[in-house]
């Protein structure tokens, strides 16, 4: 008998993957956590029925969350990741020698625990001495910080459950306060096919707080629609004005210095969401 996992990405559409076995399943304090082994994408982390990351395509998301802001900022030393308990964004951050400290604030410690066990190639840098891991509420961590971080990355789930507050104007205002005077942030902002209203809302809110706001995209096959967006808000630095001399050699599979600027070239229907 064949076993298949299906994520209903909308009421009328979903994606499905053949699975070899269920590695772990648990109702944590915050969400339903499943770790499954798939034929096509390898080990897959699923939270509340939504695919978070897979062994095969994880590098796209994690590289694009990390490297776009870290190459935009001329000297990122103190970096915060909200969410991201699988550790993939942390792994990419540590490829930048200027970063002295990377702080991870993940609300669900079980995500960290089982990512280390079943996704070691993603979570392998969480014990690095340059990393501080905090199991706690990222929203509250941001609210209590002031003039502390050069770059903040919001690696959240979709806006349901514990991540709802991470898509609010108050949260973006808190990020601005937590950033230094020349700081910037990036947040994943879902896809333009099914969540156009969310992207419009985020763009509108962030533009009221940050003088420079840009939307960029990446192709991630296991995420709804395959086209994923990221919103960058910056107090000073424009990601489209990074000089070539600032790009140093880095070990990546998706991100390149050419792609850095190309990712901001949007299809017309996506560009219209930013107006």
Short structural description:
Pathway: Amine and polyamine biosynthesis; spermidine biosynthesis; spermidine from putrescine: step 1/1. The protein is α/β, with parallel strands linked by helices and 275 residues long.
**Rg:** 18 Å
pLDDT < 50 runs, ≥5 residues: none
The SSE order reads: EEEEEHEHEHHEHEHEHEEHH
Mean pLDDT across all residues, rounded?
A: 95
CATH architecture of the largest domain: 3-Layer(aba) Sandwich
The general outline is: globular
The CATH superfamily of the largest domain bears the name: Vaccinia Virus protein VP39
Proportion of helical residues: 25-40%
- Beta fraction of the residues? 25-35%
Terminal-residue CA separation: 50 Å
- Arrangement of strands in the largest sheet: 8-7-6-9-10-12-11
Major sheet, described briefly?
7 strands, mixed
Can you tell me the CATH topology of the largest domain? Rossmann fold
Secondary structure layout:
Elements: E1 3-8, E2 14-27, E3 32-38, E4 42-47, E5 50-54, H1 58-72, E6 78-83, H2 88-93, E7 101-106, H3 109-118, H4 120-123, E8 131-135, H5 138-143, E9 149-155, H6 169-178, E10 179-188, H7 196-207, E11 212-219, E12 227-234, H8 257-262, H9 268-271
Parallel strand pairs: 6-7, 6-9, 7-8, 9-10
Antiparallel strand pairs: 1-2, 2-3, 3-4, 4-5, 10-12, 11-12
Subunit structure: Homodimer or homotetramer.
Function: Catalyzes the irreversible transfer of a propylamine group from the amino donor S-adenosylmethioninamine (decarboxy-AdoMet) to putrescine (1,4-diaminobutane) to yield spermidine.
Domain PABS: 2-235
